[in-house]
Amino acid sequence: MNEIIKKNAVTYGLILGLISIVSTTLLYVIDIKLFMNWWVGGISLLINIVIGVMLVTKTKSQLNNVITFKEAFSVYFIAGVLGSTISALYNYILFNFIDPQAKETLKEMTIKYTVEMMQKFGTPTDVLNQTIAEMQKADNYSLGNIFMGLLTVYVVVAIFGLILAAILKSKSNQGL
Questions:
Q1: pLDDT at residue 63 in the model
Q2: Is residue 63 within 8 Å of 2, Cβ to Cβ?
Q3: Which backbone phi and psi does 134 adopt, to 5 degrees?
Q4: Which of 38, 59, 67, 162 is the most exposed place for a label (fewest CB within 10 A)?
């Protein structure tokens, strides 16, 4: 693998991880209720998209404006996996060791929100009670659940990486 691709992937992966740690910490310190706001996820997604485009564009520029599909995908995917892994590890440490009560607070808020939504849609009481019971048993910040969430994020990173690579790859000089 090209050294420029490795260097950029690791550098931007660390940047993505650091941004995630800082933003998670800010949300946690300012108001834990912010974790429940949809726009927080939207801003996070937008930041990741912008950084991904910057990463692939910078890498292409450093490669004399020639980047293959594989190189564009690889640099983004490695950075995304590294950043996501750092983020997941931080969340695991934060919610299991630094402040385990925070994960319980988030669970209660999630249950309350889910109940309100299900009631708005007229969900039968027995289904509502079963859902609440399952949610109360769940530990969203257990190592297993964080790992499963991370696998899902890897798939999303791969899909976005494929799209980004298809858009930003160099055009072939051959008439394909």
A1: 97
A2: yes
A3: -65, -40
A4: 38
